[in-house]
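debug: dumping io for the single-chain case to check the tokenizer round-trip. Nothing else runs in this session.
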Amino acid sequence: MATTLQRKVPGAFTSAAPQMRKLTAESVTMIATAFLKSIGNKGSLKPKRVSLEEGVYIVEVEMKRLAAVVRVDSETHEIKEYEIQSKGEEASLVSISPKFLLVTFGVSAVVHVALYFALKTLGL
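debug: decoded output
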């Protein structure tokens, strides 16, 4: 007759619900930026602000031409909501691209030379 012994190892049992670490501003920022990269934002991400309001972390991130707001639940660590919108900056002279200036100058130079020779051949 064989008997079976069962030994209980102390400390081997864990609770069914895993212990979640408490979120910090740094960890929430990492969650938000990783999420934004995973949905296709390949440019640089610059976190601007993190705040905690009513159990939800709000992370504001700037991109090259866009701004994103990501809301992360502080208890479940899941993203509840996100919003991506274009930045509302005023137009300035710097926004005129050098390529546009070069094309405009080239077209005006060609028109000037064409008119000069056309009027010279007509005798005007």
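debug: round-trip ok. The longest strand covers residues 46-53.
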